[in-house]
């Protein structure tokens, strides 16, 4: 039986927490709840969480601060909930790391749809894999469930899009992907960016996971074709 996605719901209104929890559990998610920011951070540091629904107006620690602290170490998908309807407030929420945003009052059914959509975008093509992938005697470690990357046992912070591109490559080691193929597999057909932005993502990933980004050993350029991921440094490149 496939493991369930685990959702953390953080809101200081018990009635909202109860309703959201009931709807998510009905949709076959595992749900953990918190009524304040400090408790939310403690849960994130001790549990495997796949997505967080986060209210901004929280006791002990604001939702904005919770989001900032999570983003300092993790690419955990975050949907923000707030009573603030002002456009500037919504932009601020996105700028500090939220992936999606709902203004109160909101439809719980819409929230569940957004949860499923964000999970699909974030964990596309990676659910059948082992939880943790380790390469070259621990030089590089990817935790699929926590969406984290370690280089020589130190956390490196990839953006959500960088992690998606890396995931496509490492789940198909040795396979060459063109820019167009990477865009389609990482972001879907409805992606509104340009395929050339893949080059930027690759450059940024190399800066974070390669010993020498100018002479990469993990993500190799196949000239005239695209990119591929090499999982073992012992493999010979021609």
TrEMBL record:
SMART domains recorded: REC (SM00448), Trans_reg_C (SM00862)
Domain OmpR/PhoB-type, chain residue ranges per copy: 130-231
One Pfam family matching this protein: Response_reg
Response regulatory domain location: 6-119
Assigned keywords, A-Z: DNA-binding, Phosphoprotein, Transcription, Transcription regulation
4-aspartylphosphate sites (modified residues): 55
Residue ranges flagged as DNA-binding region: 130-231
Entry GO MF terms: DNA binding
Domain of life of the source: Bacteria
InterPro entries: CheY-like_superfamily (IPR011006), OmpR/PhoB-type_DNA-bd (IPR001867), Sig_transdc_resp-reg_receiver (IPR001789), WalR-like (IPR039420), WH-like_DNA-bd_sf (IPR036388)
UniProt keyword Glycosyltransferase, yes or no: no
Function (record text): May play the central regulatory role in sporulation. It may be an element of the effector pathway responsible for the activation of sporulation genes in response to nutritional stress. Spo0A may act in concert with spo0H (a sigma factor) to control the expression of some genes that are critical to the sporulation process.
Name of the protein in its database record: Stage 0 sporulation protein A homolog
Lineage: Bacteria, Bacillati, Bacillota, Clostridia, Eubacteriales
